[in-house]
Amino acid sequence: MLAAKPLFDYPKYWAECFGPAPFLPMSREEMDLLGWDSCDIIVVTGDAYVDHPSFGMAIIGRLLEAQGFRVGIISQPDWQSKDDFMKLGKPNLFFGVAAGNMDSMINRYTADRKIRSDDAYTPGGMAGKRPDRASMVYSQRCREAYKGVPIVLGGIEASLRRIAHYDYWQDKVRHSILMDAKADILLYGNAERAVVEIAHRLAAGEAIQSITDIRGTAFIRKDTPEGWFELDSTRIDRPGKVDKIINPYVNTQDLQACAIEQSKGPQDDPEEAKVVQLLPSPKLTRDKTVIRLPSFEKVKGDAILYAHANRVLHLETNPGNARALVQRHGDQDVWLNAPPIPLTTEEMDYVFGLAYARVPHPVYKGERIPAYEMIRFSVNIMRGCFGGCTFCSITEHEGRIIQNRSEESIIREIEEIRDKVPGFTGVISDLGGPTANMYRIACKDPEIEKHCRKPSCVWPGICENLNTDHSALIQLYRSARALPGVKKILIASGLRYDLAVESPEYVKELVTHHVGGYLKIAPEHTEEGPLSKMMKPGIGSYDRFKQMFEKYTKEAGKEQYLIPYFIAAHPGTTDEDMMNLALWLKRNGFRADQVQAFYPSPMATATAMYHSGKNPLRKVTYKSDGVPIVKGERQRRLHKAFLRYHDPNNWPMLREALKDMGRADLIGNGKHHLIPTFQPAVDGTYQSARRKNSTPLGSKKSGKPLLTQHTGLPPRATDGSKGWDKKQEGQAAAFAKGKKKPRREPNIPR
Fold it and tell me: Considering the entire predicted model, what is its pTM?
């Protein structure tokens, strides 16, 4: 991997003499107690300030403090005026602005665009403490408060909006957030390297406008500077006469290279744009090459160009070979430098070993912050994800190269939790990260990794160059659970089960010692259509893992369950796909309490599918095959209803849909049917086509127990048909009386 200046090699700023603060100050009174007359940097965040390395403002604030800067925090300010943005005074260097750990729109709205009633990152879980598009609003208020102070935009919300992006909530393509926020520079991804360098260069007197050479940054400029080669990515065939397509990665100013490209014979498919092959040129160098994406105006009006731009952006995400990107917005360019160099293990240890208090700021007076409660006894062991799932934005934000902490650093943090965090009972709730089991897994050859342009290392199958050795993770688990005072180490991060089955020893270790009754995994679907658009493995991988899980659970003498997660309404999903998933769920005895519908988050590949109806995993043209898209409210409700096939409220819709699909054979009261012919009445009776006046279940007359959803068993028909067999009926009755547990896997908590 490319070299970068280590985080700990910068000379400390003069304010280092103040030393670390117990908490980064949130008021002038705290600044006075620390002896500060001003802050060098002020971080504005949409989250409550929790001084813990799982919270972005704490990592960035403590890192800059360790570099010698005085850092203040403005948490969840009143955005209706500039007053709250002035309470710490004018920062000497810059405002750092972030919406928080979550995108503010996803934080506030459900996948059905309904307002959420809570916010896990706010004291008391109270909703409404941050505005929509918080990064943009906060930046504008900072500018109003102190006009000459540079504004550095960061966090996941800004990171995923760094170019023109489809906005699900307004159903349109919006500008790069840089344009709307009027910030000076945007840091995308995990921004430790960029923010440290920017802070030191501003402290040395450099103007923010001149800082244009830092990886992982985006900024606005007028034109491509001298000495750069600009390549066009927009040559997509139009209907009509087919012209010769020039490779968009060829420098059209280089006549020799252009002539070579034009002299090539007919292409395999003249309807597809070539966006990945680079034609060698003596003048073309990667570090001085910029790829021009279609302009904002073009992608706004042309969904095919939007999908094309999304594809090119995702092909340029490997730090080892990515080029800069540029996109025109009106008369200005949004310029994106290549992605940041991943942190080394030593740098990860440095970042996670800073002087965190590991608790919320005292200003909250012990009020419960749900997100903190979830992670206060957990440890982040790595960053990044090479899975590349199209509906997820982890790869776009953190990258696909895994950044690992050392075992020694992780053990030290567990000991710190044991010794310092209030309420610790001996249970570590998670050792994980974006996934549970990618720790120290990487490409076998750094040179191959440097040149690879694949969007995933595990799809459509596990890459032959990927080292799937779980031994380092197994050793970490064993070392952690051997610590005095630690009773249990649980694994709560999502497990990549297609990787896990490559290491039976890991699965045995996990199942025997680190499952707290339930283990969540995410097959997401059972059908090839949606799975291929998600870049997820087939259901066969789940079956293999389930067999191993059950084998080692039995050997350990435990009662444990797998909790599979599924997505409704994902691009590429048909009504038949959801029907088949529902049948699979019923065959396997699963009943989802809640369901997850596809949520088009900014910049995700699946979002480009949703907006364009095309598949950016392949070359995008106007004539390329489309992708089934679920957009209408009724169809989205139907897909969610299939996941909750057992809910009587969904039966009328499912009956109608199954009849329209020609699958009325799935309506009936036998074990092979998906939904019954009867419908519960308001008074608790079951109405059927053959019997209108049924006896309520649980009445003395019926002699049957009243079975509710938590039994994990279907309600019995009372029209004389066999809703389930006698053995199941006996199990249900015993369970209803509290005498035994159901012999099926439990409802799926969501």
Answer: 0.85
The two three-digit tokens of residue 249, written as one number: 């990665």
Q: Which helix (H) or strand (E) holds 219?
A: strand 217-221
Instruction: Please check whether residues 67 and 194 belong to one and the same domain.
Output: yes
Interatomic CA distance for residues 453 and 322, integer angstroms: 9
| Separation of alpha carbons 350 and 624, rounded Å | 48
Which phi-psi region, left, alpha or beta, contains residue 745 (left: φ > 0; alpha: ψ -120 to 50)? beta
Tokens linked to 258: 């252009």
Distance from C-alpha of 688 to C-alpha of 692, rounded to nearest angstrom: 6
C-alpha to C-alpha distances, 114 to 77, 137, 463, 578, 701, nearest whole angstrom? 24, 21, 40, 23, 44
- Residue 698: pLDDT band (50, 70, 90) is very low
The secondary structure of 539-575 as a DSSP string is HHHHHHHHHHHHHHHHHHT---EEEEEEEES-TT--H
Tokens of 170: 């307004």
Helix (H, G, I), strand (E, B) or coil at 139: helix
CA angle 561, 565, 655 (to 5 degrees): 110
Angle 535-536-540 from CA coordinates, rounded to 5°: 145
Question: For the chain, what percent of residues have pLDDT higher than 70?
Answer: 84
State both tokens at 642: 């299939």
Which is it for the CA torsion 397, 388, 465, 501, positive or negative?
A: positive
| pLDDT at site 699 | 37
C-alpha distances (whole Å) from 315 to each of 159, 168, 450, 451 are: 17, 23, 13, 11
Instruction: Give the Cα separation of 562 and 490 in Å (integer).
Output: 14
Is residue 512 within 8 A of residue 537, CB to CB? The reply is no
Cα atoms found within 13 Å of the Cα of residue 184, Cβ hemisphere only = 20
- Quick count: other Cβ atoms within 10 Å of Cβ 101? 21
CA–CA separation, 712 vs 215, rounded Å?
A: 52
Reported as a single tens digit per residue, the pLDDT across 275-324 is: 444 444 545 678 899 999 999 999 999 999 999 999 999 999 999 999 99
In Å, the largest CA–CA distance within the chain is 92
H or E stretch at 717: none
What b-and-e string marks burial along 537-574, b requiring 16 or more CB atoms within 10 Å of the CB? bbbebbebbbebbeebbeeeeeebebbbebbbbbbbbb
Of 316 and 248, more confident: 316
Q: Are 610 and 616 in contact (CB under 8 A)?
A: no
Lowest mean pLDDT among 405-409, 527-531, 679-683, 685-689: 685-689
Same structural domain, 178 and 154: yes
Give the 3-state secondary structure percentages of the chain, helix then strand then coil, rounded to 5: 35, 15, 50
pLDDT digits (tens, 9 = 90+) for 565-612: 999 999 999 999 999 999 999 999 998 877 899 999 999 999 999 999
Secondary structure (3-state) at 300: helix
Beta pairing partners, 218: 186, 336
Please tell me whether residues 604 and 671 are part of one structural domain.
no
Q: Which amino acid is at 455?
A: P
440: containing domain: 377-630
CA dist list (Å): 105 to 2, 28, 41, 474: 35, 31, 26, 38
Looking at the structure, tell me whether residues 92 and 128 fall in a common domain: yes
What's the per-residue H, E or C state across 93-138?
CEEEEECCCCCHHHHHECCCCCECCECCCCHHHECCCCCCCHHHHH
Q: HSE (CB half, 13 Å, CA atoms) of 72?
A: 29
Q: Say how far apart CA 185 and CA 461 lie, in whole Å.
A: 39
List the alpha helices (DSSP H) in 439-496: 446-451, 471-481
Q: In this structure, is the dihedral angle defined by the CA atoms of residues 362, 364, 366 and 370, taken in order, positive or negative?
A: negative
Claim to verify: residue 216 and residue 252 sit in the same structural domain: no
Q: Which two tokens stand for residue 651?
A: 């039966």
- Structural domain ending residue among the three candidates 197, 220, 243: 220
The verdict on 111 and 187 lying in the same domain is yes
